[in-house]
Design a protein that fits this description.
heterodimer; A: mainly beta; 4-stranded antiparallel beta sheet; globular; B: 110 residues; mainly beta; 5-stranded antiparallel beta sheet
């Protein structure tokens, strides 16, 4: 089956800890994205990557980091510098850059204890 | 210039009725306008999308109406069903990313 997988589905973290969220796609898509979803605020872009070894900050990149070492993988690290990390995190991919359909994974719900 | 404003925030419709959700954008460079449907605890799924060269697109019970001069577009769900109860997001795209509206929570009552 082709698609986007995110793991884990639920993640709990203590304050001050870094945590890495996994995103893998087997759609052979070039572009990948990370969004944060909070109630009543829609989806906000954290980082995106158009090609391997290249990525750009989105609207709310502070306190987050990413890497794109392989085309199919785009992990997101939530660092201790992120002031309010509790949220639903969504990964997406698209075939090409700009204005094209983005396909979303099932999401990871991160809770800081 | 980058905002997408979506209304209403929530909507209650009776089974068989028409659900209408509206969005407005500011940036005239946007050239792709999708609607996504999201069920609780799941990722959004593409429902229907339109490009600015057409004013309307229909897929089954779902229709997008697009008004380029007013910079507005809307989603119409005909014959709404309880299974349509979900959160709907509009988005506007262009050059590398999508800007999402805040979402509309739709409840279809039997």
């Amino acid at each position: 089956d082709g698609g986007i997988t995110q793991s884990p589905k639920y993640l709990f973290r203590k304050e001050g800890q870094n945590v890495t969220l996994s995103c893998e796609q087997n759609l052979n898509h070039d572009a990948m994205y990370w969004y944060r979803q909070d109630p009543g605020q829609g989806l906000r872009l954290i980082y995106y990557s158009q090609i391997v070894n290249d990525f750009q900050k989105g609207d709310i990149a502070e306190g987050y980091s990413v890497s794109r070492e392989k085309k199919e993988s785009f992990p997101l690290t939530v660092t201790s510098a992120q002031k309010n990390p509790t949220a639903f995190y969504l990964c997406a991919s698209s075939l090409e850059r700009g204005g094209d359909t983005q396909y979303f994974g099932p999401g990871t719900r991160l809770t800081v204890l | 210039q980058q905002q997408v404003k979506q209304s209403p925030q929530s909507l209650i419709v009776q089974k068989g009725g028409i659900s209408i959700i509206n969005c407005a954008y500011e940036n005239t460079a946007f050239d792709y306008f999708p609607w996504y449907q999201q069920f609780p605890g799941k990722g959004p799924a593409l429902l229907i999308a339109i490009r600015p060269d057409v004013s309307e697109k229909k897929e089954g019970r779902f229709t997008i109406s697009f008004n380029k001069s007013a910079k507005q577009f809307s989603l119409h769900i005909m014959d709404s069903q309880p299974g349509d109860s979900a959160t709907y997001f509009c988005a506007a795209g262009g050059y590398n990313k999508l800007i999402f509206g805040a979402g509309t929570r739709l409840a279809v009552h039997p």
